[in-house]
Amino acid sequence: MDPNYRRDEPGKSPMGMDLVPVYADETGGEEGSGVRISSAMANNLGVRTVAVQQGTLPRLIETVGHIGYDESKLHTISARADGWIEKLYVESNGAPVEQGQVLFELFSPTLVNAQEEYLAALQSRNAGLKKASQSRLRSLGFSGNEIDRLDRDRRVRSRVSVYAPHDGVVTDLRVQEGQYITESTSILSIGSLDEVWLMAEVLERQAGWIEIGQVADIELEASTGNARTGTVEYVYPEIDAKTRTAKARIRLDNADRTLKPNMFAKATVTADAVQDALHIPRQAVIRGARADRVVVANADGSFRSQPVSLGIESGDRIQITSGLLPDDIVVSSGQFLIDSESNIGVALARYDRADTAASAKKSQQSDSATVEASVVAVDPDQRLVTLQHGPIEDWSMPGMTMVFDVADSVELSNISPEDEVQVAIERPGAGRFIATAMHKLSQIHRSASMDAHDLSADANEDAAEAMARVVAVDQSARTLMLTHGPIEAWSMPGMTMMFSAAEDVDLSEVAPDDSVHVELRRSEDGDFVVTAIHPMASEDSTSSDSHEGHH
């Protein structure tokens, strides 16, 4: 988890994790260099490999949708005159109705007057007047049968019956018995269930695959195993702005009435296949912000990360348009761990070319150090303290939060969480760290620290200075990675972080592991910029080849 922490023998990291052996040939300096792991470790990690396949890759559109009424057969019953619902024969939504069934009876003075006018026209024996009165009755919703009844009975009915135009179920009942309605009021709708629509949501990247006439295999959530087939009847021309999907309408036969509106269903549509395609399992691809990649198993038993370009996704397979060959072997399980190790190796080679010299220097380091820290937690019974400390340069240890054993001679009764302390640390070996002395900073140099901080802040709150060690330099990007001590002017603890370099700063004479004095500026957008850098005299270091280490 901290690739910068290394030592030349087995042990534990400052976070208590066992160190893993890494050999010189495992951390090559070039992108895509191989990583070796033993067969036993590969088995423990669950590493599985598959061969790249070449051939026909069907385009499978796997989507979901909801059952709905056939909207082409929905019939809305509306009022054509003001009046009252005297009798309502359907009680609720979902009630079945048959063609010709009375839905409700309406009392309307307008309809009564229209009947009386028609009877008057009949008595007058005026053909033109009769025809005009008959047309008015039809416009008010009177059926041919009702007009024939008027011809026979010559009697006005105060209630006019409204009939169902076809079989179906009531879908949108909006009135109650006795309710007054006005002209054009929508009273109810009747939908047919002989055939239904499945409104499927197709992903934007697959919207171009689906076409009218394609066969869809349907699986209903409510009846597992009862598969059906339907036909794509229409593909809507718009993409939903929120869901980024296109809608496709699939018609399904429902003679048995088992499909009900709003049922959830899964649909699989097979479109035209891609010929002669390289493809691998979709789970083998590692998605990245800038590039996608896979882990390739080399013939010598090592693994490497390989950037690839992706084509279509179909089911659990994905097309590879570049980056792989037909005879390549890729890792389909456990590839994230291997890829992470590969990237760590590349990062180490890029940012720390002087690794062997650092290992030699570590062997000469002291077993004791002093550092300032913030108390996170105290456990007097177990003699443990959790500290958030700055970098310990004598041990090349970055700032972090970790748990320390506490020597018996240290008094913990006056130490509390959030206290700022100066702590003396010893490392007896085997990854152990012991706090041998601990004093509150307020008791040591409280006044001096506060005065220095106030003076620095008053002088220029956006400028500061610090002592630091160079971790990495990128002259082309004009960036520096520095491990610096606490910056009191900004109340910033010691840490390792990336800085930008001002245009007038010469980076050609700066190298990793140099000790430097830097002048810093904090920009308005929160960036940290090195405005000047002054190399400092460093101790002589001994360089020697190192063929193995631990991190």
Structure, explained:
The chain has 551 residues and is α+β, with helices and mostly antiparallel strands. The protein folds into four domains: 21-56 and 275-356, conserved putative lor/sdh protein from methanococcus maripaludis s2 fold (Beta Barrel), CATH 2.40.420.20; 75-191, OB fold (Dihydrolipoamide Acetyltransferase, E2P) (Beta Barrel); 360-444, OB fold (Dihydrolipoamide Acetyltransferase, E2P) (Beta Barrel), CATH 2.40.50; 461-535, OB fold (Dihydrolipoamide Acetyltransferase, E2P), CATH 2.40.50. The chain is 16% helix and 42% strand. The protein is built from seven helices and 31 strands. The protein has helices at 39-44, 109-124, 127-139, 144-153, 335-351, 355-362, 441-459; strands at residues 21-23, 48-51, 53-69, 75-78, 83-88, 96-97, 102-107, 159-163, 168-170, 180-181, 186-191, 195-203, 215-220, 228-239, 245-253, 264-281, 292-297, 303-314, 317-322, 329-333, 368-379, 384-389, 400-406, 420-429, 432-440, 463-474, 479-484, 495-501, 515-522, 528-535, 548-550. It has a six-stranded antiparallel barrel with strand order 3-12-15-14-13-16. Strands 21-22-23-25-24 form a five-stranded mixed barrel. Helix 2 (109-124) runs antiparallel to helix 3. The model is unreliable at 26-32, 347-365, 445-460 and 538-551 (pLDDT under 50).
